[in-house]
Amino acid sequence: MRSSWILSQLAALSCLAQASPLLPFGEQPYDSSVNHSEPVRGVNIGGWLVLEPYITPSLFERFRLSEDSDEGIPVDEYHFCAKLGLEAAEAVLKTHWDTFYMETDFKQIRAMGFNLVRIPVGYWAFSRLANDPYVSGVQEKYLDLAIGWAKKHNLKVWIDLHGAAGSQNGFDNSGLRDQINFLNYDENVEVTLRSIKYLLAKYSGEQFADTVTGIELLNEPLGPAIDMGKLKSAYLQPSYDYLRSTLQNNDQTIVIQDAFQPPHYWDSFINTSSANIIIDHHYYQVFSQGDLARGTPERVSVACGWGQSTLNEFHPSVAGEFSAALTDCAQWLNGVGIGSRYDGSFWKNGQGSYFIGTCEGDADIAEWSETRKQDTRRYLEAQIDSFERTGGWIIWCYKTESSIEWSTQLLAKYGMFPQPITSRQYLPQCS
Ligand SMILES: *[C@@H]1O[C@H](CO)[C@@H](O)[C@H](O)[C@H]1NC(C)=O
Ligand SMILES: *[C@@H]1O[C@H](CO)[C@@H](O)[C@H](O)[C@H]1NC(C)=O
């Protein structure tokens, strides 16, 4: 029933849509409130319309059965909804959507000097598989509210499809952890295409044109674990063609996440001069033992190399996710029940880790050493400088319930995120 409603909405939208000239990236209609020679300076609205246990642990703690283990705690939004049942899940989620982000946040984000927000949303917000436990059809109202706040406060928006049916990466932030079945069943591709087409039709329309300046087809497909040829032929290309060839408002910028592929991989994908594609590269140095063991000078030099490596790619690029984190200490960052590599508590699929340092006091700024604060600021500045040589950057993420490293709000409060946004405490580190 829901899917036929979506289809009729789609038909209505594409009929009503009106033609507008094709404006490549960087040549949007003039808007005096936005400095078009600025790079993208954005922040991710993480943990809002797609749950992540580490961003809002309080939503998940209600299921705790034991002090000694994470037994009973759902590992992702799929299992969160399955455990609560649709009605209760909808009530809890509505409260979360009403309170975790509000207009005051967007006002503050603009006041901090950002010019864009990237908003993750799951396919299930718009259409579901027959047996999906997810709440659906409600998130759209909040997405529209957020776009309205952005417009009012002079922020641009990228809408980012963060979860595909069956999961494109097995991460909890895709909605469904520990399986990568997106491309393995036709119905997964069909339902995900239905959602992205709905997003493309609605948010490329005239009503949103001055605010929604990019739609990201799919966040972080796990390239090495999936059929990249099929990802392109069964999902990315049809989505792109639907926008450019079927819709009348067809000039939206398409954002393609790099799928963990090396620089220049996407040079051969839709490489016409009018492609209007931005490649979104994500960068972290906390998800392997080798990354975590680095000292700050080495970490900074890796960060400087990131911007450099994409300068001559065919498509313009933005670092759509990166963070200040020097550790993986935030509770559940690696997933419910998994632990941290940094302090040796990590355990997943028979893989452990070795101790680098303690995670105690990670969520308490009073426990942070001056060195840790300085290293964090230095690493952040290096990344921002590196990415400003490209199309810009979008930090992950604006707020968390308790983690400091992953909260731009707290990093700014404690002097680790540059304010004003262009100020620097360290000499240019990427020359
Ligand atoms: C626009 O941004 C550029 C690059 O950051 C800067 O040099 C210039 O001063 C800015 N212009 C205005 C009017 O703020
Ligand atoms: C464009 O893509 C084709 C393959 O689709 C490739 O052969 C060609 O080298 C690419 N052009 C550039 C400039 O990368």
TrEMBL record:
Domain Glycoside hydrolase family residue range list: 93-290
Q: Which GO terms describe its biological process?
A: ascospore formation; cell wall organization; glucan catabolic process
Please give one Gene Ontology molecular function term for this protein: glucan exo-1,3-beta-glucosidase activity
EC no.? 3.2.1.58
Q: Name one Pfam family in it.
A: Cellulase
Instruction: List the catalysed reactions.
Output: Successive hydrolysis of beta-D-glucose units from the non-reducing ends of (1->3)-beta-D-glucans, releasing alpha-glucose
- Grouped into one coarse class, the protein's main location is secreted
Q: Which family does it belong to?
A: Belongs to the glycosyl hydrolase 5 (cellulase A) family.
Classification via PANTHER family? GLUCAN 1,3-BETA-GLUCOSIDASE I_II-RELATED, GLUCAN ENDO-1,6-BETA-GLUCOSIDASE B
The name on file for this protein is glucan 1,3-beta-glucosidase
